[in-house]
Amino acid sequence: MPKIHVIHENDAWVEPLREAFAELRLPYEEWFLHEGHFDFSAAPPHGVFYNRMSASSHTRGHRYAPEITAGVLAWLQSHGRRVVNNARALQLEVSKIDQYATLARYDIRTPRTNAAIGRAHIVEAAKAFSGSFITKHNRAGKGLGVRLFHSLDALKQYVDSDAFEDSVDGITLIQEYIRAPEPYITRVEFVGGEFLYAVRVDTSLGFELCPADVCQVGDAFCPVGETAPVSPAARFRILRGFDHPIIRRYRQFIAENGIGIAGIEFITDGAGELYTYDVNTNTNYNPDAEKEAGLYGMRAIARYLGAELRRIEVPAHARETLVGSV
Fold first, then answer.
1. H-helix segments, 79-139
2. Per the structure, how many domains does the chain have?
3. pLDDT beyond 80 at 235
4. How far apart are CA 48 and CA 99, in angstroms?
5. From 10's CA, which of 58, 63, 117, 151 has a CA 20 to 30 Å away?
């Protein structure tokens, strides 16, 4: 029988989804794509494939997980399998440059951004900014590597020091500093291409914004100001009745780029201008915020995947193909 196949590299992030599958009695299998072997000459099994590969996999010792996932997704799609967050979605997950270029086609504003490879070129690229700016990794996830600078001298001291942290793909982004009137960003969640809810995130503890309770805040550099710290549990609050024209543009963007499930983050400056700066196709949810609001992202994902599974028509003669060591 066909089942839901969850492609991932982080057990902790999948645990709430396992609970939701059990609650709804949905058949599923996990493909932990860190290492293994695959017979790409064979036909893949039937079912629905949910790609949860993360741009931050290298921070957990899974350096090449996105690369093998790209191959697996190409294989699945070549056989016409239903893939949620497909190969195009993975491309966007691992490259913020690609994200920004694609968002621009949908009239979605992003912060002014330069890209550089090499320490000297990072400093040179930052000369284009007259005010404060931040650096971030092109391939990162969770906001890791985000640092705020108010001068070129401060940046030069950093890139010339042992503290400098290069992006795993070698590309550092230099981005204009968006000064928000309050230290908050907004994250808009979509499941099945439809708006689920928006959550306000307090950034005063730093900018590692993975909302899962298993994530730890390790970056003290916040690109939206500095205020008194708050407890991790209070950082996330689901917004009741959130409605904004940006949702329509986000929906079109994800629908036309192979994305079924995502969280998209934006910041608003003092003039009310909205800037979108991150697309997370490997989205997680904060359990405390969801409990308070009575809304549950992983349950919504499980219901959506279950509905997609019921749409699958498997030919009578088809047999499931075993995939080695997944």
1. 87-93, 96-104, 119-126
2. 3
3. yes
4. 25
5. 117
CA-CA distance, 215 to 211, in Å (whole number)? 7
Given this model, what pLDDT does residue 123 score? 97
* Rounded distance between C-alpha atoms, residue 120 and residue 279, angstroms: 28
- Tens digit of pLDDT for each residue in 158-186? 999 999 999 999 999 999 999 999 989 99
Angle in degrees, CA 51, 52, 55, rounded to 5: 120
Share the mean pLDDT of the chain. 89
The whole-model pTM stands at 0.89
> Which positions ≥6 away from 190 have C-beta within 8 Å?
196, 250, 251, 254, 259, 261, 262, 263, 264
Do 146 and 220 sit in the same domain of this protein? no
| More confident position, 36 or 251 | 251
DSSP state of 151: S
How is residue 163 annotated by DSSP?
T
Q: Which residues form the domain of 235? A: 180-302
Both structure tokens of 255: 């629908």
